[in-house]
Amino acid sequence: MVIYREVDYLKKGYSERKSIIIERLEYFKKVGFENDERLFAELCFCLLTPQSKAKICDKAIQNLVNTNILFNGNEQDIKDYLIGVRFNNNKSKYILEARKLFSNEEGIIKIKEKLNEFKNFYDLREWLVQNVKGIGMKESVHFLRNIGYYDSMAMLDRHILKNLVKHNVIDKVPENLSKTLYLDIEEKMKNFSNDIGISMEELDLLFWSEETGEVFK
After folding, report:
1. Annotated catalytic residue: which of 112, 157, 204, 217?
2. Which helix (H) or strand (E) holds 19?
3. What's the predicted TM-score (pTM) here?
4. Above 70 in pLDDT, residue 174?
5. 91, 138, 204, 217: which one is catalytic?
6. Do the Cβ atoms of 128 and 142 come closer than 8 Å?
C-alpha cells in the first residue's frame, strides 16, 4: 500500500483554490463548443508549449489569430510571430502541417469533424499522438483538457511529475518518459486522485498553481 505524503497540505490548497479551478474547467468545456478555428488555435498553443513558457506561447497564438496568419500564413510568417518560443523552426513547421491535416480540399479548417469521429477520449488521444507531428502524450492531453475533453487522463509535464514525487505517488522524476511508463504513472496518479477525492483535471491545475501561484492553462 502506498503511503502518500503531505495530503492534508494538498487538500488545504485545493479548498482554497477550488472555486477558481472549477471555474477554469468550466471555461475549458465552453471552448470545446466554439468554432473550428478556435479549437485549432488551442491545438497550436499546445504544440508550442514544450520547453516554453505557457504565457509566451499564448501571446504568440493570440497574435497569429489576430493577424489571421495562423490560418493563412506560410512557415516563415508563422515563425516570425513565435517570439520567445523555443525551437520555433520546428514548431512553425508543426503548425503548418497540422493546418494541412485538419483542412478540407478548400483549405477550410475542419478539426471538429475529426474530433467527433472518436467514441472516447483515449482513442482520440492515441490518434493525435500518431498523426499530429509535435504532439506527444502530454501535449495531446493538454489539448484535450483545454477544450473540455478530459476523462481521467494525466498531463505529465515536469511540474506534475515533481508534485507526484513530493506526495510519494512515484519515486522519482523519470529522465525519459516512454509511452509505457507514461501510462503506468497515469494509472498511479489516477489511484492517488481517487484516494484523496480530487479529480485528475483538478489536480493538474492545483499542482500548476502550487508552482506558479495562479491557475492558467
Report:
1. 157
2. helix 7-31
3. 0.93
4. yes
5. 138
6. no
